[in-house]
Write a structure and sequence with these properties.
Blueprint (H helix, E strand, L loop, with lengths): L20 H30 L1 H4 L5 H19 L1 H26 L6 H37 L3 H16 L2 H12 L11 H4 L8 H7 L3 H4 L3 H25 L19 H14 L1 H33 L4 H26 L1 H21 L8 H28 L4 H23 L4 H30 L1 E8 L2 E8 L1
Antiparallel strand pairs: 1-2
């Protein structure tokens, strides 16, 4: 277990009276800088990733790059975070890793196997160390400052993460404003005829589009629009690490050097602990399908849904507007579900999310949108955003609840299985007709939900009552509801 560094000997805390208003401003400035850096970077990456199935459909290359990213993340999360942070320190690790993301955006100017695949691998290698460096910086700064001020580190760290995610989650709004503006409909865009529409929706298949498609300028997004998108997003991606490089204080100001004596797990030790935790823990086996579902549903919506239900039947220029609705719903309900769970409990909220996801997929299996009825897609985006808000916030919180004192191997399992869900989503969606993929998703969601219900039932048998947990501003709180 990591040892809290001895902060009393650090220069900043030699005299508690030295904490000034300027120090307070610097602290919040650092939180804001990290939030802005990630917001700019992911405005570029997430929105470019969401467009891969539409911008680079030839032979499925765009979606394959996403699969490669998440396959690489699975490996990097075990072996690279500790190495990067110890070698470069937290601030430099953030800058270097974010800079590695920019190569993937730059590759969009010449989207070939030789450019997209290497840049995808580099991005995947950078992802886990970057997120770990962010968590390290905010956690260490919160612990350090709380020691100086004599306050609770938990409360301060929760506030840091709450502000960070509030800023970070706005990427879906800013990026899709750009996407909607740049991909405005061409004057010669025409609504698909009946034969073309029959290949959309549940009948959509990436290989079919590749075989039928011609030159990208004729059949896909015009080159000048691709270049404009790539140029704008490249600027966004460069701004992210630049802000952090120039404006973020080194973590050494908050006791980073004292972390040298901490003994974290090596990559192999964490790998062993992760699979040992899975093999020996019934709860981990039961929650694994729902964790994979979290990656599956995000990958399906970001790649398969956008290509089959937006680009194919009503035009790529509609993606931005629909994703803005989805991202806004996701962000709003990520915040609201903390309040909702406190009043109605965890089981009703999980059930609601599963019903929303199931209903959307069953309807879409039988219905293909047209320009005249595209308003329904906004409704489906809202329902999917509400479901995703549950999975992203409450599965994380649920892990903290059912694995107390086992956070490191438990959350390593979370990262592993969610990344595997993303990987499976991109590989399956790229190689089978979408209806087959959606039937797989329906079955997987049903199995996943059964696993979750079994955990709740086992907890009831163990404790004699239901425990309702909710995540509120990053803090897990329990409410006991006796039978």
């Amino acid at each position: 277990m990591n040892k809290t560094p001895d902060l009393e000997s650090s220069p900043l805390v030699e005299d508690r009276n030295t904490w000034t208003k300027n120090d307070e401003l610097h602290m919040w400035k650092n939180v804001g800088v990290i939030g802005l850096g990630f917001m700019f970077l992911f405005t570029a990456f997430q929105n470019m990733a969401a467009l891969q199935s539409s911008l680079n459909p030839s032979a499925g290359i765009g979606v394959y790059t996403l699969a490669i990213i998440y396959a690489t993340i699975i490996l990097s999360c075990f072996f690279l975070p500790t190495f990067f942070i110890k070698t470069l320190k937290a601030k430099r690790a953030l800058v270097v890793c974010q800079a590695m993301y920019t190569l993937y955006i730059a590759a969009q100017f010449y989207p070939k196997w030789g450019t997209l695949i290497p840049s995808s691998i580099l991005l995947g290698l950078a992802a886990a160390p970057m997120w770990s460096a962010k968590c390290t910086y905010l956690s260490q700064m919160g612990t350090y400052v709380a020691k100086v001020k004599g306050t609770s580190p938990e409360v301060l760290i929760n506030r840091f993460f709450g502000i960070f995610f509030c800023m970070f989650q706005t990427w879906g709004i800013w990026g899709n404003i750009v996407t909607a503006t740049v991909l405005a409909p061409k004057d010669d865009w025409t609504e698909p005829n009946a034969a073309e529409l029959a290949k959309c929706g549940a009948n959509f298949k990436v290989a079919q589009e590749s075989d039928d498609g011609g030159d990208d300028d004729e059949e896909g997004v015009p080159k000048h629009q691709v270049y404009m998108l790539a140029g704008i997003y490249l600027v966004f991606a460069i701004i992210g690490p630049t802000i952090i490089f120039f404006l973020l204080d080194p973590l050494s100001k908050y006791g980073e050097d004292e972390r040298k004596e901490q003994k974290g797990k090596s990559g192999l030790q964490l790998l062993f602990a992760t699979f040992s935790h899975f093999a020996k823990n019934k709860y981990q086996m039961l929650i694994m399908p729902l964790t994979i579902w979290s990656g599956l549903e995000q990958g399906w919506f970001g790649a398969s849904f956008t290509a089959a239900y937006i680009t194919c039947p009503i035009g790529v220029h509609n993606i931005g507007y629909i994703i803005i609705v989805y991202a806004s719903t996701d962000a709003i309900f990520s915040f609201l579900f903390g309040w909702i769970l406190k009043r109605i409990g965890r089981i009703p909220v999980f059930t609601m999310a599963a019903i929303f996801n199931m209903a959307v997929m069953i309807i879409l299996l039988k219905w293909t949108p047209t320009v005249q009825h595209k308003g329904f897609l906004y409704l489906f985006a809202v329902l999917w955003g509400m479901g995703d808000a549950v999975w992203q916030t409450q599965i994380n919180a649920f892990y903290g609840v059912i694995f107390p004192g086992q956070e490191e191997p438990a959350f390593s399992n979370y990262r592993l299985w969610e990344s595997l869900g993303f990987l499976a989503s991109y590989l399956i969606g790229n190689n089978v007709q979408l209806s087959v993929f959606m039937y797989i998703l329906v079955v997987w969601l049903a199995v996943s939900f059964v696993g979750y219900v079994i955990i709740e039932f086992m907890e009831y048998q163990r404790t004699g009552h239901f425990s309702i947990y909710f995540c509120n501003g990053g803090k897990t709180v329990s409410v006991e509801q006796n039978e």
